[in-house]
């Protein structure tokens, strides 16, 4: 993942909002007799200098800023347990942080919570090349895991544009979707085991490595997607899949969103079993890439583009199936131009068009990011409605997303934060989504940004149960406070 140098004016400093129920002072005073394992490596494992804390306090979008004065970097589950037990005893709030690539403000402290950074917990524990089950610490970077299992003939079930920075523990805690969801499904299906430190500091060992295990409540699911509010994930067992040796990517141009939908239907039918990704972007997303990152789409200009990836073991068969599918799409006029890449460097170049939109948008100034799922018939209507509502108040309205999963990323940009623009988008977009039984957060999570909109997707009974579960597991509310729950 590249980094964007040009950044945005911060639209709020979180410390300005609400009361601050957790007090950090006790930890500074008691640091000398604080967890013994840190004493010899203090400079690299206890971060206290304000300059060094900036990155722990600031999110990837540079729109949220916390005021933590302490970040700790444990190396083992036992160390995490010791930290959390200490914080529990002293009523200190904790913010678990992975690669800090989250897009909803979940990974940064809101006030002065102690950041527990998982980045030194990056050991591979075991890989079983007959079952494909990988066991590792939660701070392993996703791309490193992919490279490791690739060498053994496997692939990890999740892939996203932030793969070079995000950690598997962050992926699990957000139940990240990403670019291969259409093939391998959710992490709820692919996480086989977890080890978690509970808010009391106790270690919950669910590091099962058996595919089948029906022994009552499957507790690991509580931590998948709960965004660090119920426990700190320290180890995981992930199901990896045999890597298909032959991959092809097609990048296609469509003249209307109706054509995009027809394209998606035919691709699903004709390429079933081979399809690994089915993505889309609109021309405004392509313009953003061109203007901000000098990346051009590999075909002539169209209102919409569809990216398809297939993978299998037989290149001749793949080619035949792909050609049949593309011929049909051209005959039916759903596609007007296209290119196919089969060589790794070209495949990567085509993928960068889709993967780097987020980074290109960051360069524009302030970004209003939405991650919704909608029935396909309503998928693009909301973008047209938003364009009309926002009109010249915004620099751009852009849409891209995981077409195969009905997951749309609608984004608007302005040079600096504009409250009027925000009020024209929210809560309208959430109401629109909810009325159509869509999800207000298809993959990024609720984090800090969306807590007050949770009711658009969850009934009061569901929210009450979530609150009861939180109260049961974290009665003092020390773990990632102000996140997920309203
Ligand atoms: P962080 O951002 O550090 O944390 C995210 C949340 O998880 C926070 O609430 C944090 O407290 C919690 N957390 C982190 N580690 C732990 C742990 N070990 N134990 C308990 N809680 C923990 N998301 C998608 O779903 N699909 C995409 O396609 C996608 N593409 C992206 C592309 C780009 C360029 C960027 C910048 C982001 C993208 N994201 C995407 C969002 C983000 O990358 C994912 O949410 C990712 O899973 C976060 O991982 P992380 O390690 O960076 O977690
Ligand atoms: C993506 O699919 O590119 C990500 O979820 C990030 C984003 O929404 O910008
Ligand atoms: Zn996405």
UniProtKB/TrEMBL annotation:
It comes from the Eukaryota. Its EC number is 1.1.99.39. InterPro entries: FAD-bd_oxidored_4_C, FAD-bd_PCMH, FAD-bd_PCMH-like_sf, FAD-bd_PCMH_sub1, FAD-bd_PCMH_sub2, FAD-linked_Oxase-like_C, FAD-oxidored/transferase_4, Oxid_FAD_bind_N. Pfam families: FAD-oxidase_C, FAD_binding_4. Residues 64-243 form the FAD-binding PCMH-type domain. Its main location: other. GO terms for molecular function: (R)-2-hydroxyglutarate dehydrogenase activity; FAD binding. Keywords: FAD, Flavoprotein, Oxidoreductase, Peroxisome. GO terms for cellular component: mitochondrion; peroxisome. Catalyzes the oxidation of D-2-hydroxyglutarate (D-2-HG) to alpha-ketoglutarate. Also catalyzes the oxidation of other D-2-hydroxyacids, such as D-malate (D-MAL) and D-lactate (D-LAC). Exhibits high activities towards D-2-HG and D-MAL but a very weak activity towards D-LAC. This is D-2-hydroxyglutarate dehydrogenase, mitochondrial. It comes from Argiope bruennichi.
